[in-house]
Design a protein that fits this description.
alpha+beta; six-stranded mixed beta sheet; 7 helices
Length: about 425
Amino acid sequence: MTAHSSPPQPNRPPSATRRWLWIGLGVVLLAAGGLALVGGEHPAQAQMRGPGGMEKGQMPPQPVTASTVKTQAVPVWLTALGTVTPRSYVNVMPRVAGLLQSVDYKQGQRVKAGQLLAQIDPRPFRIAVEQAQAQVEQTQAQLAGAQSDLLRYETLLKQDSISAQQVSDQRATVAQLKATLDANKAALDNARLQLSWTRITAPVSGLAGLRPVDAGNMVTTSGAVGSNTSSSSSTNSASPIATIAQVQPVDVTFALPQQQIGEVVSQLMAGKQLETQAWDARNTQLLETGRLVAADNQINSTTGTLDLRAEFANKKLALFPNQFVNVRLLVRTIPDAIVVPTTAVAVGAPGTYVYVIGLDNKVKMRVVKTGVAFDNLTQIVSGLKAGERVVTDGLDRLRDGREVKVVQPLSVQGEAKAAHPGAGRAGKPAAASGAR
């Protein structure tokens, strides 16, 4: 039996096989690229975009806070450092010498004019009054006898029973006794006055200081000797019976530079009462509101300032003598002034400028001219108009043409969270976020 074998297959060269593989791969890549062009952007372009679809290299909007330019009346205040001075400050001194029997006022409390402050032992002065009264009565009796004798002498003279010289002498005696009576009456008035001075009364109404003397001290017309404010080594020092400061009303003295006084003095001379405010040392609390009442008659050549004085009613005793206060003097009010928050104004190489937000939310730097500043607001004399929006926070990160996103200040956000404590994150109500 004869075996039959299949005919031999021809061998293909390896290079031809690889060629067909590369051609097939190219066709597949071309097909994939065509599908990508039809379905959307090229994968390479997708890689060029960052989060949110923003192309790499493009700046995101800068978060800033903003405010709208508005118009309002702007007060023009002048500021200075002032000192509270009492309307009057009195050291009450004894007017007679003696033993201090009592001190009848309360230290640190208000006293009224005529109120009894202290009492000096009046007994020696009452005795002096009685002695003077006796002298007056004695002289009155002598004068009455001399006048009676003169009347009788004149009658006898008419009858030619007495000499004219005797009548003349009697008339001189009567005149002398009249003069003596007048002197004795004056001595009596003086004794009574000395007695009245044993009652030491307040010459003015005001606030009494700390008591410098105690009852039992000897006092002279120079003051109390050995007061409780004196040291043991100076027992001969003298002190007043009381000190009284008149603080209702009270004055505040302050000084302004000579460059600022022109408008102030002209209005003061015209009879206008300029409003004046007294603020505490930290300039955070308004203590009292008063009025400007006087200006000095010359400028201090050393400091170049003019001293002014304002009056305050001080009903609540918020102002004390020698207290330092910050004074604000209202000179005038500018109506319909353009104002922006002070934080919107910056100073740099271009000068004073602000960043204005356009309709496309892009900012543009604009040079402005500022005026007066008050209550965290600044007047804009030129460069802005009402209704425009300016950046108030984040100016240091801005350039012309930069896109911005206006957000609320942190303080406003905190107030909103406090008003709605149940609000969840991302603006969703807490009830929705907590639902099961």
